[in-house]
Design brief:
The structure is a single chain. Helices cover 35% and strands 21% of the residues. Strands 3, 6, 8, 9, 10, 13, 14, 15, 22, 23 and 24 form an eleven-stranded mixed β-sheet that branches. The protein is elongated and about 105 Å long. By secondary structure, the chain is of the alpha+beta class. α7 crosses α9 (440-456), α11 packs antiparallel against α12 and α19 (645-660) packs across α20 (666-679).
Length: 682
């Protein structure tokens, strides 16, 4: 089905339904054409430790990565209602219980992820704070028209990405059956496509920039019950989607930093924990796109993507080993049996407790898999973890361990118990056996998922969304969503974006981050400040200080970027970049009522005493007072103790600056003091 988006040149035809699809950083050219048609190649490369991997190594495995970066916008209201945005709180006044079910897409298809989530039979609990949530978020009232402030910010960022701007917005619904959105869908729209940013002299494609609602914050997910906070629900969020253009894990992180700096340069996005979240897509040759969801910090991207590339490569090597054993998708065989009876008297505590509680134990025979459940996938991680993750997520058997397997028999059941289980399953020496326990429905579903995940090993790499784990490996989260979860929103009409609006937004755009950095370097701004200043909200104040007040660029940059950090380390209240104190300080510097040496003590006093800077500015000395004080100090430093010239100078400067700090320039004071000391003999 062809789809269309509207650009300045008219209606442009694209290869897919651009307005109602996730056009993310998929690396579809690496996807095998089918389970019976794997690529013919050797997977003999063995991953090295992260520190030893080179760009040539990543090229050898065909590493590709793309980004989907979600960034909250700094608006007063939410996207489709008038509730306040940015009010986070652990306080809640009510709880709402919901169960989710899938719906058909506009093409009459169910999305695989939605069906997977439906199998979990989750109870979803929403904690509601009446100050930040209304009936719209619960789908009890229709949406308001889109937040115009949020739309303007999104359009501006799309321009900074050099995107083709749409001239008509179409709102779509994207299904989310994990419960993170109470309605079961997220309203989303595309504001720009086909952009680019520069990365070391080459283009990184911006596939699209979307504007959408943020989801709930998860509190807990245990068994069949998942709990969410709703305070951030509905906040305006942009999604930046790049092409699969990064060739190493380090490049993926570097591009994420560039995108972060670009959006922050507007001063119109939120900052802090959770305000920006990265989904990272990874594939290798012969694999498929896998998404690592919700990476909280950019510095974690290199190791996370390294481990995902390693995992995919090792799964492809596992597939080749299965082929060598004549286990293919067509020949795959498994068997599931209730093995509660032979384990009724086990001393293995988890199963013993389950049987006493009236639960059942299921065994799964995987033909030809002997030894492969210990096949390495990631650092200190094995194929058995892939199976355990599926059981945990889909069967909701969240208490670990949730499976046992015959490739590690000494860690669990006795040898006689394993023999009995294998006999009940009819397992041979070349087969692997996996045991799972729980309530009857959960245990049987878990057994089915064990067999399903083992069968997927004959294909290679399943398309999944995975979660980042604390050790920078990753675990299964859900099946990767597809286009079948998208359908048009029937509550909101299309919205025209006129040329006048685009022209006004373009006129207000800040200089690009790269332009700012080049200017700062020409001005001699310290290298360790250049990058931070280029995307800081203080960038415009820096420009005013330098151009209008003729403040020394180095001084202005250090005051705006480094001084707030020093004050924070002293435990003083945070000083925002747009604080009036900075403007007052730059005016005082321009008028020679204040000098650099006095700025930091002045800010400390202002924050500690809670007084404005203007009330604490040092009083100007009367004409001649400075010269008189310098002469007085020189005359006091007489005698044998001060025969050492450098020592006498240091002592004199200490006394003079103690009286005049902030009111005189240090270099000028040194020249004056040296002159007066020269006129007064020790």
């Amino acid at each position: 089905m062809a789809a269309f988006y509207h650009g300045p040149a008219g209606v442009v035809k694209s290869s897919g339904p651009a307005l109602f699809l996730d056009l993310d950083g998929a690396n579809e050219e690496n996807v095998p054409s089918g389970p019976e048609d794997p690529p013919v190649m050797a997977y003999d490369f063995i991953f090295k430790p992260f520190e030893n991997m080179s760009p040539e190594d990543y090229a050898a495995v065909g590493f590709k990565s793309g980004l989907e970066i979600h960034q909250q916008l700094l608006t007063g209201r939410k996207l489709f209602c008038r509730c306040p945005a940015g009010r986070y709180s652990d306080v809640y006044h009510a709880e709402i219980l919901r169960h989710m079910r899938p719906t058909l897409s506009e093409l009459g298809e169910y999305d695989g992820t939605a069906l997977m989530e439906f199998k979990t039979k989750k109870e979803i609990i929403y904690r509601i704070n009446r100050e930040s949530v209304c009936t719209y978020e619960m789908d009890d009232t229709p949406p308001f028209m889109i937040n115009e402030e949020a739309l303007d910010i999104a359009l501006a960022i799309a321009m900074l990405y050099d995107c083709v701007m749409v001239d008509e917005l179409h709102i779509a619904r994207k299904q989310y059956l994990d419960g993170s959105i109470p309605t079961g869908f997220q309203r989303t729209t595309i504001v720009g496509v086909d952009g680019r940013i520069d990365f070391n002299g080459r283009d990184i494609r911006i596939v699209q920039l979307g504007l959408e609602e943020d989801a709930c914050r998860e509190v807990s997910d245990i068994g069949h019950r998942r709990v969410y906070k709703t305070d951030r629900l509905g906040m305006p969020l942009i999604e930046t989607v790049t092409g699969p253009d990064m060739r190493t894990p380090q490049e993926a992180a570097a591009v994420a930093q560039i995108l972060r700096r670009i959006v922050r340069s507007t001063g119109r996005v939120r900052t802090g924990i959770g305000a920006g979240r990265e989904d990272v897509n990874v594939s290798v040759t012969g694999g498929t796109r896998v998404e690592i969801k919700g990476v909280p910090r950019i510095p974690r991207i290199p190791r996370l993507t390294y481990h995902e590339a390693m995992r995919q490569w090792n799964l492809l090597r596992l597939r080749e080993e299965l082929v060598r054993r004549s286990v293919t998708t067509a020949s795959f065989a498994s068997s599931i049996e209730d093995v509660t009876k032979p384990l009724k008297r086990t001393r293995y505590t988890p199963i013993e407790a389950a049987v006493k509680a009236g639960m059942i134990v299921c065994g799964v025979r995987l033909n030809g898999f002997a030894g492969l459940l210990r096949w390495p996938t990631q650092t200190d991680t094995y194929f058995s973890q892939e199976i355990s993750d599926r059981v945990r997520v889909i069967a909701c058997l969240t208490v670990l361990p949730n499976i046992l397997h015959s490739d590690s028999p000494g860690e669990s059941l006795s040898s006689s118990e394993w023999t009995a289980v294998k006999k009940a399953l009819g397992a041979r020496d070349e087969d692997a056996v996996v045991v799972v326990w729980g309530g009857e429905a959960d245990a049987r579903l878990g057994a089915q998922e064990i067999a399903a995940r083992a069968r997927e090993a004959t294909i290679g790499v399943p398309s999944e969304t995975r979660q980042a784990l604390p050790d920078d490996t990753n675990g299964f989260e859900r099946i990767l969503p597809g286009p079948d979860r998208m359908y048009p929103d029937t509550d909101l009409p299309p919205k025209k974006i006129g040329p006048g609006r685009l022209k006004a937004i373009r006129a207000s755009l800040p200089p690009s981050v790269q332009e700012r950095e080049r200017w700062y370097r020409r001005l001699g701004v310290p290298a360790d400040v250049v990058e931070c200043l280029s995307f800081s909200p203080a960038a415009r104040l820096f420009e005013t200080a330098v151009k209008e007040h003729a403040v020394d660029p180095k001084t202005a940059a250090v005051i705006l970027i480094q001084y707030p950090k020093r004050l924070k380390r002293k435990g003083l209240p945070p000083l925002p970049p747009d604080a009036p104190a900075f403007a007052e300080i730059f005016e005082a510097l321009a008028e020679k009522r204040l000098f650099r040496e006095g700025v930091l003590p002045l800010l400390e006093a202002s924050l500690a005493q809670g007084k404005p800077v203007s009330d604490l500015l040092p009083a100007a000395g009367r004409p001649g007072d400075l010269e008189k004080d310098a002469l007085r100090i020189a005359e006091t430093l007489r005698g044998p103790r001060f025969a050492d010239g450098p020592r006498r100078m240091r002592r004199a400067m200490g006394l003079l600056m103690a009286e005049w700090r902030g009111r005189i320039d240090g270099a000028g004071a040194a020249r004056l003091m040296a002159d007066r000391l020269g006129k007064v003999s020790p």
